[in-house]
Amino acid sequence: MSSADIAFIETCKDIIENGTPVFDERVRPRWEDGTPAYTIKKFGVVNRYDLSKEFPLLTIRPISLQKAVDEILWIWQKKSNNVNDLGSKIWDAWADENGSIGKAYGYQMGVKHKYREGEFDMVDRVLYDLKNNPCSRRIMTNMYNFQDLSEMALYPCAYSMTFNVVDGKLCAILNQRSQDMLAANAWNVAQYAALVMMLAQASGLKPGELVHVIADAHIYDRHIPIVKEIIERTPFDAPKVTLDPEITDFYAFTPESFTVENYVHGEKIGRFPVAV
Q: Which pTM does this prediction carry?
């Protein structure tokens, strides 16, 4: 089984067996019928994925790597906060009549800041440091801008990255304040693993370890039966995922730059309710 299967199955089992139920009507998320979306959760979950050994793509259910990469490039490459620039509909519920999600995600990545070397947005600063200051312990991004929270349709869930070069390999820590295990976990792991691969290749490095830190890892009440069924499925070996070696400019990558081979996976799950 893949490292993604191991982490997902173990985390979900731990949440179901040892998690804390949150049945408080003051919870923010609601189901489509307006009722509170309760959860069972674990606090402070940490999962590690060694990208030098395999790509962490879930096999007990299919994950579209191209669609996951499309979203991460929407944020990190296009630096967009408009759903019309995105190839999927996953953000439509939070968009206004013009397609904007406010000063969230891609908007924050495109804001320029002053440094001794000049002005950079967060993405270009990461690329600059990986090439010029690979020993730095200050290569970070943070989309959780308190000044702009009131103008965001949704506070960032996966909000910060810390990068560190270890023996020629790019390692990263993804910090996430909140994680819907069914809807987002495998998706986020795949897209941020892909992001590390792209940043590494653009910087003349190899991909290293991705560490995923989740403050509140939860399963929604209406998702528990679905999750129980998924984690009892038979997992398969991780597929081979490669990145077009000819591309060295981060802004030239596309979802099609990735090739997935030998991806054997379980059945796709049907539509399930999403709390918003």
A: 0.96
DSSP letter string, 189-244: HHHHHHHHHHHHHHTT-EEEEEEEEEEEEEEEGGGHHHHHHHTTSPP-PPPEEEE-
Let me know how many helices (H) and strands (E) the chain has, helices first.
6, 10
| DSSP assigned state of 77 | T
Angstrom distance (rounded) from CA 14 to CA 43? 11
- 3-state DSSP assignment of residue 259: strand
The residue assigned the tokens 């969230």 is: 104
Q: How many residues does the chain have?
A: 276
DSSP states of 119-186: EEEHHHHHHHHHHH-TT-S-EEEE---GGGGGGBSS--SEEEEEEEEETTEEEEEEEEEEEEIIIIIH
Which residues are annotated as catalytic?
157
pLDDT along the chain (276 residues), means of 10: 96 98 93 94 98 98 97 98 93 94 97 96 98 97 97 96 98 98 97 98 98 98 97 97 98 98 95 86
Give Rg (Cα) of the chain. 18
> CB–CB of 185/179 below 8 Å?
yes
CB atoms within 10 A of CB 224: 16
The secondary structure of residue 256, as a DSSP letter, is: G
Kindly report the number of other CB atoms within 10 A of residue 59's CB atom: 23
